[in-house]
Amino acid sequence: MDSVPFFRFLFLLSVIFWHISVPLFVSAAEHHCHKNEGNNVMRCMTPLGAIIQGAIAGAVGTTAMDLALYARHRASGSDRFLSWEFGGKSDWKSVSAPAQVGRRLYEGLLQRPLADRWARLTNNLAHWGYGIGWGCTFGVVGGSLRRLPLAAGPTFGACVWASSYVILPLLGLYKPIWKYSFTELAPDLAAHLVYGTVTERTFSTLARRAVTSLVPL
Description:
Layout: H1 3-28, E1 32-36, E2 41-45, H2 47-74, H3 81-86, H4 97-110, H5 119-143, H6 152-170, H7 182-210, E3 212-214
Antiparallel strand pairs: 1-2, 2-3
């Protein structure tokens, strides 16, 4: 059965990701503690805490972004949210560019084609993995700062959006950004601003509730 190589590939990809990313995250966020002088409090966030809270925030942000995109879809369609989010036709012509990246990774590493029946699953894994992965990155950076800037959320969302128009054109999956009109770019940018804002708000809320401890000074 060709499902065995596919799941072996997912396992291999997850092992590679964690072996590369976790040491980087740990070295970048080696136990950050910041003094809150007004309340005589020391706010401490461990690297693991930053990653976990960032992952949760990224998942919430991805959900918010998809709800914003779904609201636009509802104007011309009648699918329920879960059917629109996880269902649909499973072939490589109807999935997103991140799914095509996943397909290339699979076929490049294992040197065998990935069947159409895995297209929808690959699309979902790539989409949610991308949103959660960026959330982890935000968590590590946000956890290392004394205070997040007011515009951190929208700025983060805009950076995630812009990165797609750097990476995907190099892979031949998008055109260069200057070849798109503003009306083509605006809906995707707006959705990513929602993603960034909700990710930042969720992370900040989790951080306030989970990482504050009193230290005698």
